[in-house]
Amino acid sequence: MNSVIGPEYVIEVYDPSLNMRGFLVIDSTFLGPGKGGLRMAPDVTLKEVFRLARAMTWKNALAGLPFGGAKAGIIWPPAFAKASAGKSGMPALKKKFVQSFAKMIKPFLASKYISAPDINTGQKEMKWFVQAAGNRRAATGKPANLGGLPHELGGTGLGVAEAAVGAAKFKDLDIKGAKVAIDGFGNVGSFTFKYLSETGAKIVALADRQGAIYDKDGLDFNEIKKIKSRRLPVSLCQKGKAISRDLFFSLPVDILIPASTTDVINEKNKNKIKAGIIVEGANIPMNEKIEDELFKKGILIVPDFVANAGGVISSYAELRGYSPQKMFAMIKRKISKTVNLVLKQSAASGKNPRLIAMKIAAKRLKY
Question: Model-level pTM greater than 0.85?
Answer without folding.
Answer: yes
